[in-house]
Amino acid sequence: MAGLRREPTARQMRLGIELRRLRDAAGLTGREAAALLGVSSAQINQIESALTGVSEQRLRRLASNYACSDEELVNALVAMATDRTRGWWEEYRGSLPTPFLDLSELEHHATFLREAQFLYIPGVLQTEEYARAVYAYRVPELPSEELELRVQHRMRRKVILEGPAPTPYEAVIHEAALRIMVGDRAASRAQLARLVELSEADHITVRVIPFELEGFAGATSAMTYAGGALPKLDTVVRDGPHGAAFVDSEAQLGAFRALFHKVETVALLPERSRDFIHRLAKEL
């Protein structure tokens, strides 16, 4: 077992999952796939469990053995398998929980991002003061060093919205999240002002769901939807009681696409949302 990964990333695990899905679609067992490739069944299991990597040549042979004719998908999987990116988030490995790093990696590779939030401002839109207030409220309290690491990490995630090629980003935020004063009044005012400023960027869309909207029962629809190289490689991230959960089955992705469309459809248009947030900031 020497040389096996101790802690595969979510992206590495997704590659293994997709290869297993291709094998299952071909109706082959791990042992049969191994025989076609001329390796042991243990090696197939290690690849599909992301405990070890897979070369481009071997991946293409697997796809051929599985009779996969989707060239775009195979090329996208090859890109995942051969990616050697060591992103900024790796600086935090061993210092922050792994899901923090997995989310950063997902955002880095996303072709677009969509968020629906109902109680908090989305992380990549938060000011430093807002983020610090969120983390400071945790029970048990975080050691000051870890709290600052989490705030620093959250601020660095904003890189996806900055630079010469920012990621297209859309957020749907409920009025509740805008009105809850996570920090003090000054910090809340600054957070709303920051939202107005960000919403003026061409690649950022912010839309608001007001309290006055009738018939809205979607407050449990919070999600981060990250676009992949292909729609079938999209990912949804949802916060749960035991941390972030990554969702990637085609059926679930389809359901979350429809769910986001529902909350997006009932939200105010971007310009009206900007005016709405600006008015709330002036009221504070």
Features:
6-stranded mixed β-sheet, 49% helix, 11% strand, 12 helices, elongated, 284 residues, alpha/beta
Write the layout of secondary structure elements.
Blueprint lengths: L9 H17 L3 H8 L3 H8 L7 H10 L5 H12 L15 H12 L3 E5 L10 H9 L7 H13 L12 E6 H5 L5 H15 L4 E6 L13 E4 L8 E6 L2 E5 L2 H17 L3 H14 L1
Parallel strand pairs: 1-2, 2-3
Antiparallel strand pairs: 1-4, 4-5, 5-6
Notes on the structure:
It is a single chain. This protein has 284 residues and is α/β, with parallel strands linked by helices. The protein has twelve helices and six strands. The chain has helices at residues 10-26, 30-37, 41-48, 56-65, 71-82, 98-109, 128-136, 144-156, 175-179, 185-199, 250-266, 270-283; strands spanning 113-117, 169-174, 204-209, 223-226, 235-240, 243-247. The chain has a six-stranded mixed β-sheet with strand order 3-2-1-4-5-6, with helices on both faces. A hairpin with an 8-residue loop joins strand 4 and strand 5. The longest helix is centred in the first third of the chain and has 17 residues, at 10-26. The radius of gyration is 21 Å and the shape is elongated. The protein starts with 9 loop residues before the first helix and ends with a helix.
